[in-house]
Amino acid sequence: MTKILDDDTKFDHFFWISTRAMRLNRSHPSIARDRPWRIQFTFIMILSVMCFMLLVYSIRCDIQKGKFTDASKNIIMAIVALTITYKYAILLRFQESVTSLIRIVHEDYKLAKEFSEEEQRIVLHYAMRGDKVGKFWIVSAFTTGAIFPIKAFLLMGKSYFAGEFKLVHMFELSYPWIFEDYKNTPIIFAMMFLMTLFFDIYSTSMYIGYDPLVPIFMLHLCGQIDILKIRISKVFSDPSDSDEMVREKIRIIILKLQDIYRFIEVIKTNFTMLYEFIMKTTTFLLPLTAFQVTESLRNGEVNLEFIGFFTGVILHFFMPCYYSDLLMETGNDFRLALYSCGWEKHSDLRTRRTILFMMTRATKPLVISTVFYAICLDTFAKMCREAYSIFNLMNAAWA
């Protein structure tokens, strides 16, 4: 038997991008919640709350002054602050559960080393696809997050070489009167710039670390189902097998299927409310971000930071919808493989009844869901239509 998977086939090895990002922001479920972690977590939360409060204050000031474009910009950042805090809370609340899911994937990789060459290739294929998800996110999140400080430094450099140096903040915020009058003094500017830079790095690490997790889990399940699909197609292929041998093969497949169903239920328990939240916030983030881009184009400018942000917002909900849709299709393919495996020609009534029960169970879609909707491409299309309607209303009211 050819060995496709080596000793480095581990969760942390394949998905090192997500793992390292979560360790950077201290949200990784395997990190001990000891005293040093509590100090780090408190520091992170204090700075995050301060940034959120400043954003809310700026939104109120912008609306009072009729600066709806600036207000929408700050609403976007406030939603981001809420989203990453919610994600951190999910990782804390379901720490043991997420750790268990990671451990299951790791153990499946260990077991896969004893599989046939064809099955090992399937496991490797879906692991590589999971790795690509992490790469998509590091490119999207890093480029979007890096634009804000780079733009600020470039504008300061441009003003310096023009002989009229001025300080440029990362985010255009309104500060309480105590800070508003002194926000351009070097000390206050440095404090505010470092705080917003921390928020930028923290947000980027949360998106890189957290968002690939569920797509990675769904891709792993797709690989496991594909392996079962191959095995069920071979159950009745050897006429010399006794009824007991056939029943034993089916029993092993059923046990693995039950593990897959339990895995999916754990994902639903952990992430249903989060994806409901993401779907609702994305419905508003898309038109708000598109409004920023179109307004800058009307003014003859190119808003690079929000162009990148727009693609990231789409990716934020498209990724889970795409891979949940793939999981649903893989489940349907398995049901068809069950139906066409040749069970009707087998004489053992007990075996035929078992296959029928399996087909009945397989009619229930294998899909991740929000509170009200299945997460799939149809739901993504529905969300986009609602976002476009909101964008048209914003253009009619504020453009």
TrEMBL record:
Regions crossing the membrane: 39-59, 71-91, 136-156, 187-210, 306-323, 355-375
Q: Which family does it belong to?
A: Belongs to the insect chemoreceptor superfamily. Heteromeric odorant receptor channel (TC 1.A.69) family.
Q: How does it sit in the membrane?
A: Multi-pass membrane protein
**Location in the cell:** Cell membrane
Concerning PANTHER family, the annotation shows: ODORANT RECEPTOR, ODORANT RECEPTOR 19A-RELATED
Keyword tags: Cell membrane, Membrane, Olfaction, Receptor, Sensory transduction, Transducer, Transmembrane, Transmembrane helix
GO terms, biological process: signal transduction
**Protein name, please?**
Odorant receptor
The organism is: Ctenopseustis obliquana
Q: Which Gene Ontology MF annotations are present? A: odorant binding; olfactory receptor activity
Q: Can you list the GO cellular component terms from the UniProt entry?
A: plasma membrane
